[in-house]
Structures are given as C-alpha cells and as structure tokens.
Amino acid sequence: MNQKTKVPAHARLVAAVAALGGVLFGYDTGVMSGALLYIGNDFHLSPVAEGAVTSMLLVGAALGALLGGRVADALGRKATLIGGGVIFVVGSLACAMAGSALALGAARTALGAAVGLVSIVVPMYISEMAPPAVRGGLVSLNTLMIVVGQLLAFLTNSALAHTGNWRLMLGLAAVPGLVLAVGMFFMTDSPVWLMRKGKQEEALQVARRVGLDAELVASTSGDRRSSREVRAQERQALRRPWIRRAVLIAVLVGITQQITGVNAIVYFAPKMMNLVGISTENAVYTSIIIGTVSVIACWVGMMLVDRIGRRRLLSMGLAGTSTSLILLAIAYRFAETDVRASWLVLVLMALFIAFQQAAVSLTTWLLLSELVPSQVRGLGMGIAGMGLWVANWVVAQGFLPLVDAVGGPVSFLIFAVLGAVALVFIRRAVPETTGLQLEEISGDMERRYAGE
C-alpha cells in the first residue's frame, strides 16, 4: 500500500474486520499439514485417502465460491460474512468430534463451503469499500490474513505435536469464526450493494465514510430487480463477448495461482520432509518456517502492489516460483539419498513460498475482485472462484499419488513447467488494473474485446 496516500479510518476498519475471513481460510487450509500426520495413523489412511480427506474441504469450497457471489448479492456482503463465520464455528466443532474418516470428510466439506464463500465475498466487499489509490493494499490485507491464519495453524500444530491431538488442532478454528461473525455485525454493507437495493442515501453516506467518489456512486441508480431477474440479466450479459472474455480471464488467473503447486507445499510440506528422513515431530515444526516466510513475503507484496502494478508483480512472482521449483527438484533428489541435504530442501521451499505469497497469491485474489464486470459481479466472481478451488482440489487430491508414482523431483518439475505456461498467459492476456476505478477497468475490457 502506498504510504503517502491517506486512507480513511473507516475503510481501514472495514478491511481489517472483513479480512478476519482470511484468517479462517488460512487456518483451515494450513492446519491439515500437521494434523494429517496423526489422522492418518488413527484412521489407517492410504496416500489416496489422505489426499481425499484433505481435499474434501476444497470440494465444499468450490461450491461455496460458486454460490458465494449470488448469496452476497441477495443477502448483502455483511450478512453473508456473518453467516460464513457461524458455519465456521459449527463446521470446526464437527471436525473435532468426527469418529471416522468419512465423518471427518463430510464435516470438512461443509466447512469448505464456508471457506469458498468467504474467499469470494471478502475481496469483493473490500474492493467495493476501498478508494482506487489504495484498493490493492486493502484488498491484499485479506491475502495477508490468509497466510497469518496458516502460520497460526502451523504454530498450533507444533504446540500440540507432542500430544498428537489433531482434534484440538481442527477445533480451534471455531475461535476466529466467532470473531468474524461478531465483528461483521457492527459493519455496514457496501455502497454497490446498497445502491442495488435502492438505498441511495445510505450508500452515499457509506461512500463518503470510506473515501469513495460520492458522485460516481450517485450516478449508479438503485436496482430493485428480483433475484430471478438478476440471474436472467446476468446470463444475458454473459453473451456479450467482452464480459465473457473478462470472466474467462478471471477464471484462468485463479487457476494460475494453483498450478504453481503452492498448496502442495502448504498442505504437504511436513509429509515431504518426512519422506526424506525428518522425524514426524520435527517435520511439523518445519511448517513454522514456511508460515513465517509467507507472512513476511505477503507484507512486502502489500507494500509493492499499488506501486509497481498487479501484472508486473504477478509476472515477477511466476518467474521466481518456476525457478525455485527447478532448484527444489534438484535438491530433493539429493535429499532422498542423503538426509543432510534436507535443510536445502526446506530453504528452497521457503524461497518458493516467498515468491508465491509476495506476488502470485496476493495479486490473484486482487485481480479476481477487479476484473469481473459489475454486470455479472456475483455470478462471475463465483465462477472464477470455483475455477480456483477446483484447481486447488486437483492439486490436493493428486499430489501425494503423483509423488508416489513419479517421485518428488519430477512432481516439482511439472509445477515449474505449468508456472512458465501461466507466465506466458499473464503477459499476453491480463490487463494492468492499478489505480483504476472498477468501472474504468470494465471500460478497458469492453474496448479490447467488444468486437469479438
């Protein structure tokens, strides 16, 4: 975030409270990396079953992401995030009390629906409440909270490693879920949603409080369409070539975040370290290093994103992740025969995470909130979010079987190649959105693709 730009206090408060959803997102995706080491022993899971239990959260997340935008359009951003916090509480307690792998998978699926919903609605809400000059930094606060949540999960796993109490590891997610629900109760809805519901005066008041252009907000007439009419008009809007292209680009940007293999590292770093000779308890502790690097790197990215631009930062990140993965593949090959090389594996995992969190993951969530036009904002962000979570599921479900089939080094090389392909796509298809109003971004996309 550009430190020279003054950010209204209310905009900061709104972003901070909403970003608590990122803590939940991060905790629930990160906690399995340590808990899985003990769940597998208790329930006698095969590598395929371990991947399934981990990835069931992602199945629910894909559905939650698809529906999240529409729920937020119908009920409001505020009510949707309150509901997401409540589901987190209930789902976390259900995970902690699961008596079988099947019950745990079912609870993780329900919890995943809340993760997917929050992952879409939080950046949507913050982007609608943030002035353009600082939108990158404020929306990226959500990404910072995701990695903070993952670090909290890793610290919790490490603190409980000597007990093997995976139930407590999973159940503690109920705490931030409760904080999110209570915190959002005191927030206001976004001017975009308020205008759509015909609440013009309230929308203008909120716009002024968060530093938005009140005249621009006022130029948008209140929208009192029924839910059925909204869905019909969204489907009609998707027939317009430029809107369809904008949504498709957003979908591919979301997939780009996952095909770098980031969640193979986040979910399975302790497992991979365990495979090269690190003890189970020490393998859990290595996640703290990964989590700490993630938080620091994400903070650095927040300082840069409004200065050097989304597209440039994302390109730099993809080049860095692919290079790190190539080096990681080489180091992992040595570590398979000499445990003394395992420290180099950990260093290169941390380097990969630094590029990923400072640039790739941070800009991905930001671009999703910026690229989708207002005409299809709920549906379009839902589709883009579902694409991201489906890709996440494929990685989580397939990584351990892939390692079992071809080995760790080849698996890392596959991700490096995919990252290079993603870099070509970003350079050719993704526009720069830094410093532009959301309406200006849509106008640029329309000029580019209206004739297709």
UniProtKB/TrEMBL annotation:
Belongs to the major facilitator superfamily. Sugar transporter (TC 2.A.1.1) family. This is Major myo-inositol transporter IolT. The chain crosses the membrane at residues 12-39, 51-69, 81-103, 109-126, 138-160, 166-187, 246-270, 282-301, 313-335, 341-367, 379-400, 406-426. Keywords: Membrane, Transmembrane, Transmembrane helix, Transport. InterPro entries: MFS_dom, MFS_sugar_transport-like, MFS_trans_sf, Myo-inositol_Transporter, Sugar/inositol_transpt, Sugar_transporter_CS. It is a multi-pass membrane protein. The keyword Transmembrane applies. It comes from Corynebacterium kalinowskii. The gene is iolT. It is found in: Cell membrane. GO terms for cellular component: plasma membrane. GO terms for molecular function: transmembrane transporter activity. NCBIfam families: SP (TIGR00879). Residues 14-434 form the Major facilitator superfamily (MFS) profile domain.
